[in-house]
Amino acid sequence: MSALEAFKAQFDTRHCHLNNAGLSPISRRARDVVRDWAERFYQEGYFADAAYDLLVANARASLATLLKTAPSQIAFFSSTAVAVSQVAFGLRLKHGDQVITGADEYGSNLYPWREACARSGATIVEIPSGPGGSFTTESIVAAITPETKVVAVSWVQFQAGALLDLKVLGGICQRQDILLVVDAIQGVGIYDMDFTGWGIDALCGGSHKWLVSPVGVGYLAISQKLFSQLQPIHVGAQSFGSCDDPTQERCVLKVDASRFEPGAKASIEIMALGASIDLILETGVSVIGHEVRRLALRLRKALTEQGYRVICPHTKSDAALEHEGHTGSIVSFSATASSAYKENRNIYAALRANGIHAVLRGQGVRLSPHAFNSDLEIDKAVNILSPKSSL
Ligand SMILES: Cc1ncc(COP(=O)(O)O)c(C=O)c1O
């Protein structure tokens, strides 16, 4: 069995999950961790303490491997929004500072920055977006001024899958001493990430999309440079040590990124995330990513042939992107360029009535195959929507 076949065999095939940029099903390994640990907590309670601490540490190490950073630079939270908020509010922005972001960023990335700027008197510059909520590195560069302190952007745009080149952006930010903060939830697990090599200062994400894990874990990877500048915004017993640690009362902050985790964590979810990340590492991000983009391309081509308008967030042609291996993971489409919400809703309803999970996003219907999906599932979706006039 190939690595890809072994990955696919980890998923239940009863439903057709084509909204993996929204909420993916979890892998069998993750499910088994949840089952086993519910039973262990039921039977063993505190006697399982050391065992789950070790597995949470393993999950942190696996995530660090996936992102290419050190476990000591990772903190766990409950969602991406909490991780972004830790950075936005912990930076202590001040009047005159400028934050650059995209006008159509997902709310968990946009609102913490808007609010942190409003409270501190810093200025937020929201770059207007083109098709599918995308914007280019050039438009970010054009917005930079001597006051720019932070560039806060998504790696992969959630509406239509536009991909920013973080290596290029990281280099630009480093040369100008600007912090690069990335919401990477739509990319981690399907595109290779090099947190350290690309010069990213903070990377935020969550468990429930491409990492095929239960909802409820957010994470932050933080650079050594930013670590010392960032104030913990939530503080509790575990910011300093543990209840068994006599140094706790001296309130000296921990020396690694776990100082940003103030108290007890969602241990079962984190352990399950660790199991899914190990599966992804064993399979290979490039193997998974290649299959995701192959299936997405199959879908894009078939929908285009049926006369649908597939929103292309990229400036290059599909052929050029395919050649570079950069076709998107997300396929957003509508019946025509001027389709009204009602028409998109009909498409969504037809898919849903036939057992396919899609979602309405931006100006279209969004489908997002994962590597566990099959050609048959892609073809089923296209058949439901064919011919276009039948809807
Ligand atoms: C770009 C992006 N960021 C973050 C999230 C999730 O945010 P949170 O974990 O805060 O719910 C999503 C999707 O739900 C998303 O598309």
Question: Roughly what is the average pLDDT, rounded to an integer?
Answer: 93
Name the CATH superfamily classification of the largest domain. Answer: Type I PLP-dependent aspartate aminotransferase-like (Major domain)
> What number of domains?
2
Strand arrangement, largest sheet? 2-8-7-6-5-3-4
CATH uppermost class of the largest domain: Alpha Beta
Classify the helix fraction into a percent range: 40-55%
Q: Write down the overall geometry.
A: globular
Q: What are the main properties of this structure?
A:
391 residues; alpha/beta; Aspartate Aminotransferase, domain 1; Aspartate Aminotransferase, domain 2; 2 domains; seven-stranded mixed β-sheet; four-stranded antiparallel β-sheet; 14 helices; 41% helix; binds pyridoxal-5'-phosphate
Please outline the helices and strands.
Layout (H helix, E strand, L loop, with lengths): L2 H6 L7 E2 L10 H17 L4 H19 L6 E4 L2 H11 L7 E5 L4 H14 L2 E5 L9 H7 L4 E7 L11 H10 L3 E5 L18 E5 L11 E5 L1 H4 L9 H4 L26 H17 L1 H21 L3 E2 L7 H7 L6 E4 L6 H13 L2 E2 L1 E3 L2 E4 L7 H10 L7
Helix pairs in contact: 2-10, 3-10, 4-5, 11-14
Bound molecules: pyridoxal-5'-phosphate.
